[in-house]
Amino acid sequence: MKKQSGFTLIEVIVVFTLLAMIMAMIFSGIDSGRRTAEKGEKRITAINEIRVIQNIIRMQVSKAMALGVAESDEGELLKFLGDEKSITFVSQMPGYLGSGGPHIQKLELVDGKNGEVLQYTHGLVSNYDDEDEMSEFDEAEPMVLLENIKTGSFAFVELDEEGLPSDWLSEMENQTALPLMVMVDLEMNQNAKEPWPLLQIALQVDGATTSRRRSTLNMLQNRTRREVN
Question: Structurally, how many domains does the chain consist of?
Answer without folding.
Answer: 1
